[in-house]
Amino acid sequence: MHPYEEIRATLLRRINEGDWPAGFSVPGEEALAEEFGVARGTVRRALSSLVDAGLLERRRRSGTRVMSRSSSRSVLTIPIVREEIERSGRRYSFKLLESSVGGQKLDPAGLFSGARLRRLLCLHLSDERPFQLEERLINIAAIPAAEAERFAEKNPNEWLLEQVPFPAVRNVLRAEVPTLDDSRHLRLGPGEPVFVIKRQTRREGVMLTATRLSHPGSVYQMAAETDDFAEDPAQG
Amino acid sequence: MHPYEEIRATLLRRINEGDWPAGFSVPGEEALAEEFGVARGTVRRALSSLVDAGLLERRRRSGTRVMSRSSSRSVLTIPIVREEIERSGRRYSFKLLESSVGGQKLDPAGLFSGARLRRLLCLHLSDERPFQLEERLINIAAIPAAEAERFAEKNPNEWLLEQVPFPAVRNVLRAEVPTLDDSRHLRLGPGEPVFVIKRQTRREGVMLTATRLSHPGSVYQMAAETDDFAEDPAQG
DNA sequence: AAGTGGTCTAGACCACCGC
DNA sequence: CGGTGGTCTAGACCACTTG
Fold first, then answer.
1. Over pLDDT 70: what percentage of chain B?
2. What local confidence, expressed as pLDDT, does residue B113 receive?
3. What is the DSSP string of B188-223?
4. What mean pLDDT is predicted for residues A170-192?
5. Which of A168, A217, A229, B42 has its CB 3.0 to 4.6 Å from that of B175, i.e. a possible disulfide?
6. Confidence check: pLDDT of B235 > 70
């Protein structure tokens, strides 16, 4: 175990066991470096890790303080539909149900401020069973190739990742009563809700896509963990 | 803008514009340091940031490569119920509905491997309207004070955060048909689904709590963003 | 065996901000 | 103004893994 890991673990223990309660003013970096017998950079690295995790807050001149935990940050890993299905041992396929090109009438919420848009409705299947219904708007000005693309081989999701591999993404998660399209295409049980992800992607401030993904509630779930959860295996 | 930020932005552009496609072998840290005219530590910092974001992968001896984006990692911020409600300008209150102490019969899934458990059923209200139903199991061996606590002033959530401020957390999110308890307490509309969070917390490998949180689907949603989303404001 | 990334050091200077 | 954290440097040595 490296020095910075031990220092991180020590500081974490002091916080979680109440030695350093919320609001406590942590010794300066120079002082900690002396206490642990390391260079300032090493103790800084341990502190940074705890700042990223939301346990500490640093401010110039006034020093480092223990945060009161008002929220926890978990990492939500959002897989690619096809890979998610194939990893579970099922066969993936998709159908393009609707496709059109247009302007503001496709974007009632005004997210794209009037740009020309490609609209797609696409169903993703797991072993021939409906798994995800995707309704997507793509900004043609930002991604010109989106106007003519047929989406015959590649699904819109993966095609877009080739155009812009790592956009900035925002997801909103909801439990909803199925829409008409949902009921038509997802083959839901009676009373079954849908798990909805509303996603926006941007690159350098320009809105690229807005998407609504709906899934049968009985077959879909997402997991989110704090960074330390995986490194902290349950005891047998 | 600091050198490491500019370097990060440059590398990001090379990846997103296809100069460095998935699988591409990035020049070594020494070479990049020379290209940008900085110390190796500085270029390393930019690389680390992209590794954390999932864009790059580093391996000793074989070098740094561009990842193919098989998933995206978003940060899910999970607020404290009371603060979430009060921030929206409403009045928070809660009711302890059921409370008991027992062993394995409370834990059919066997998560706690037979430990003595405290079980709570608790309703959280926003302006007197049901907002969240909480069913929680607490490991008494790990948190002895949980056996006798009355939860009269503080709700279980916040009381536990005083005992263990920063546990490791795993959340599973689902859209579900309401259970009997949900319908009884959440005052749901006809056909309205519930948004369910199943949460486990651990500290140093020991399971602390297992909780099911259910919310009326019509009033609840969660948001998850990539790190760069906030820094990348939409254009007017 | 060698070359890559991973860690650490000792020091310098800067930027912010509370006093 | 002074003291804190923030950035950067130049160099050393280590650890892993692949050829």
1. 97
2. 84
3. PPTT--EEEEEEEEEETTEEEEEEEEEEETTT--EE
4. 97
5. A217
6. no
Q: What are A85-139's pLDDT values in tens digits?
A: 999 999 999 999 999 998 778 888 888 988 899 999 999 999 999 999 999 999 9
Say which amino acid occupies A231: E
A37, amino acid identity: G
Which residue minimizes Cα–C1' distance to D4? A61
Reading phi first (left if > 0) and then psi (alpha if -120 to 50, else beta), residue B144 is in alpha
Tokens representing residue A212 in the block: 């609504």
CA pair distance B20, B13, nearest whole angstrom: 9
Phi and psi, residue A144, nearest 5°: -55, -35
Q: Which residue has the tokens 């194939």?
A: A86
pTM, rounded to two decimals: 0.91
Strands of the sheet with B25-26, listed across from one edge: B25-26, B63-66, B56-59
At A207, which amino acid appears?
M
Separation CA B103–CA B141 (nearest Å): 11
Q: What is the DSSP string of B28-67?
A: PHHHHHHHHTS-HHHHHHHHHHHHHTTSEEEETTTEEEEP
The residue ranges of DSSP E strands in chain A, in sequence order, are 25-26, 56-59, 63-66, 71-79, 92-102, 117-126, 129-139, 168-176, 194-203, 206-216, 222-225
Residue A122 pLDDT: 98
Q: pLDDT class for A213, splitting at 50, 70, 90?
A: very high
The values of phi and psi at residue B113, to 5°, are 45, 50
CA distance A159 to chain B (A): 12
The Cα–Cα gap between B85 and B68 comes to 40
Task: Please tell me the total number of residues recorded for chain A in this structure.
Answer: 236
Q: Are B203 and B191 in contact, with CB atoms under 8 Å apart?
A: no
Say whether pLDDT at A235 is over 60: no
As ranges, strand C nucleotides with an atom below 7 A of a protein CB are: 2-12, 15-18
The nearest CA of chain B is from the CA of A62 a distance in Å of 23
Q: What's the pLDDT score for residue A40?
A: 97
| pLDDT higher than 70, residue A232 | no
Instruction: Give me the CA B196–C1' D17 separation in Å, rounded.
Output: 45
pLDDT at residue A231 in the model: 64
Q: Can you give the pLDDT at residue A180?
A: 97
Question: What interhelical angle do A3-16 and A29-36 show, nearest 10?
Answer: 110
Cα(B55)–Cα(A169) distance, integer angstroms? 14
Q: Which residue of A has its CA nearest to B45?
A: A45
Q: Which residue has the tokens 């700042």?
A: A51
The pLDDT of residue B236 is 40
B91 exposure class (CB count in 10 Å sphere: 0-12, 13-18, 19+): exposed
